[in-house]
Amino acid sequence: MKTNDTILIATRGSALALAQSNMMLARCREAFPELKFDLNIIKTTGDKLQTASLAKTQEAESLPKGLFTKELEVALLNGTADFAVHSLKDLPTELPTGLKLGAVGGRREDVRDVLIYRASDSGFAGRGFSPNLAVKDLPQGAVVATSSTRRKAQLLAQNSGLKTPDIRGNVLTRLQKLAGNAELDATILALAGITRLNYRIAADGTLQGPDVPKGLLAVILEPEVMLPCVGQGAIGIEIRENDPRIDAVCEKLNHHETFQCATAERAFLSAMGGGCQSPVGAYAEVIGDELRMRAVSFLGEKVRRAEVRRSISEPVELGRQLAAELR
């Protein structure tokens, strides 16, 4: 393997992106001590459009695809980066010509979502609630802010009286908005993201971690309540095709079972004809020598759910089969 050039890892500059990229950087340096690795931090269109609403259909259609990936992909194609680290849920299923998903960087984090809200004794303006709050128990008219159409649809399926306005910003920004805005009652974040930022949910339900506003509670939502989005909890490594040097790096970074699950989920989303903001959820997991995948779709007039099992060696076929049952 060529050893004289630094291998550049493209990443966004958000706290979560940097946490994930530094994880991969450390693993690369451990696995290949003879090679030089460094980060290339790039600002993406999604970072620049912090006021854009990803959940409003007309606005979403006018925004470019790959909001959080395009500039990283340009860097791969023009040679200013050798691989890009993404939250896999942000990576479109159709990649630019010349690029591919080279690996899933390590075992998948917990795929579940988390409902975060003010405690009844938080001291913040606005109403608060007790620990272990269930979505179905939120009062009529309660405001749960999220920019995900998937989360909105599943929230309303559990509790039709909710209001679900959009919210933008990184994890800490959203927590600060919740704490400081009496009009918001709750928000939803991915457990994987808050875990990678070293936040944790204490035994009493309080959300704890660096700079987290005190007085916030969190409860994990099981997949039966909130099925995750495609790729949630996984780190995607995007690379150029026909690049043996980076292929060798990916072999060390890849977690095979997670890669098979991610491949099945991405095949499902592609076959459904949707992108990252489609109101569908899917979760594949390895059980023995099989993949089991559950999915939900809100694309039609009524909610459709399905579950399929297939050999772990047939992830693409599994995803397409499940999509065919839901279309």
What can you see in these coordinates?
By secondary structure, the chain is an alpha+beta fold. The chain is 31% helix and 23% strand. It is built from 10 helices and 14 strands. Strands 2-1-3-11-4 form a 5-stranded mixed β-sheet, with helices on both faces. The protein has a 4-stranded mixed β-sheet with strand order 6-7-5-10. Helix 9 runs parallel beside helix 10 (315-326). It starts with 6 loop residues before the first strand and ends with a helix. Mean pLDDT is 90; it is low at 51-64.
Task: Offer a quick outline of the entry.
The protein is of the alpha+beta class. It has 10 helices and 14 strands. Helix 9 packs parallel to helix 10.
Layout of strands and helices, then pairs:
Layout: E1 7-11, H1 15-31, E2 37-41, H2 45-48, H3 57-62, H4 70-78, E3 83-87, E4 99-104, E5 113-118, E6 144-145, H5 149-158, H6 171-180, E7 186-190, H7 191-196, E8 200-201, E9 207-208, E10 216-221, E11 235-240, H8 244-253, H9 256-272, E12 280-287, E13 290-297, E14 304-311, H10 315-326
Parallel strand pairs: 1-2, 1-3, 6-7
Antiparallel strand pairs: 3-11, 4-11, 5-7, 5-10, 8-9, 12-13, 13-14
Helix pairs in contact: 9-10
